[in-house]
Amino acid sequence: MTERRIAITGLGLVTPLGLGRQTFWDGILERRTAVRPTEGFEHEYPTTHYAQIPPLNFDDHLDARQTAMWSRASKLAVLTGNEAVADAGASDLAGPRTGVILGTGYGCALEFEDLYDTYFHKGWKRIKPITVPRLMSNAPASHLGIRFGARGVNFTVATACSSGAIAAGLAAQQIRAGTLDACITGGVDLVINASTGAAWNNLRVLSRRNDATASRPFSGDRDGLVFGEGCAIVILEEWSRAEARGARIYAELAGVGATNDATNIVGPDTEGEVMAVREALADAGLTPDDVDYVSAHGTSTEANDKNETAVIKQVFGARAATLPVSSIKGHIGHTMGAAGAIELASTALAIHHQTLPPTLHYTPGDDGCDLDYVADGPRDAHIGTAITNSFGFGGQNSVLVLRRCSK
């Protein structure tokens, strides 16, 4: 499946750093963190700091008459999709040769919380009929298809933290197979609410540092992940189509690897993740020696960071010691089902600008985390090929290989 190459031609981003692709990238280069005290609901949980999207009035960007029945996730996806499509300069996405494949972890969790609150406190007759289309986890993908007239395959992927990356990999495979010529893909997740926060606090994997430096990937003093929220939409096109219309190409999506650990629903497994990296490189026709940068999953949890470091060492051998690795979760927290898509976009921007994102708040001290984590700020570098890792609860792994634009 190497005949049809995949071009990344458009990026849209709404993250805790703010609205838009440039705001995101500026925040990365300026080493800003979006972790701050919770807003929007009161709680008494041990964890008080999250990475939330700044206040956003969707009516300033979308037609309120059309979006009245939409969930916040659907609004976020379409708003982000508008930027991605405009960035790609793609005016011919309508029709059966364009698909939509979107990842999410929690879908429309905010609307479910509202539903149950109404049901238990006011009764079933007070539940509005529009609740049904607002609740559907596939609604954001459906609204993207409607917005751009994309009549090809349209579906939603839910593989926890790897959802956005799995979605992009499936989109690339659809284009390679000739089923599609273009795909609107990525991930969206909004998980910061009272009920979800309660569950995750009891799981005891959230940081309790409760300051702006709480998300500390690979750091010796890390104490857990920080919830984030956001959306990334990526436009993928068949290479010759993109070239024919003179599109700017950020990078080539050259390889896809997807595996399942098949061992533990919440515990990472080195073997399954190693398989995903090797599968992605083989799919791209590359070897570990070809890789210049690793965009890490890097969640800031004890288990993930050590495990991912071990995976990198196993795949890259002696080169692992000098191979740049970074995680952007110190900037924006763990955006769950959107994380893989946001990190795909970040990696494409890194290749496009030949700049490595930093790993915020890293301090050495864990013998199991001893790689080059780009801890000294953004770094100019030659990035010909990069991989981006996404390892989700359920053991569902995705690794994508990106290559610098070449004829």
Structure, briefly:
The protein has helices at residues 21-29, 64-67, 72-88, 109-122, 131-135, 139-148, 163-176, 194-203, 239-244, 270-284, 302-316, 329-332, 339-353, and strands at 6-15, 18-19, 35-37, 49-51, 98-103, 154-157, 182-189, 230-238, 251-260, 293-295, 325-326, 355-356, 379-380, 385-392, 396-403. It has 407 residues and is α/β, with parallel strands linked by helices. It has two domains: 6-244, 3-Layer(aba) Sandwich (Peroxisomal Thiolase, Chain A, domain 1); 255-403, Peroxisomal Thiolase, Chain A, domain 1, CATH 3.40.47.10.
Describe this structure in words.
With 407 residues, this protein is of the alpha/beta class. It has helices spanning 21-29, 64-67, 72-88, 109-122, 131-135, 139-148, 163-176, 194-203, 239-244, 270-284, 302-316, 329-332, 339-353, and strands at 6-15, 18-19, 35-37, 49-51, 98-103, 154-157, 182-189, 230-238, 251-260, 293-295, 325-326, 355-356, 379-380, 385-392, 396-403. It folds into two domains: 6-244, 3-Layer(aba) Sandwich (Peroxisomal Thiolase, Chain A, domain 1), CATH 3.40.47.10; 255-403, Peroxisomal Thiolase, Chain A, domain 1 (3-Layer(aba) Sandwich), CATH 3.40.47. The strands form three sheets. Strands 1, 2, 5, 6, 7, 8, 9, 10, 11, 14 and 15 form an eleven-stranded mixed sheet that branches. Strands 3-4 form a two-stranded antiparallel sheet. A two-stranded antiparallel ribbon has the order 12-13. The model has no long low-confidence stretch (mean pLDDT 96).
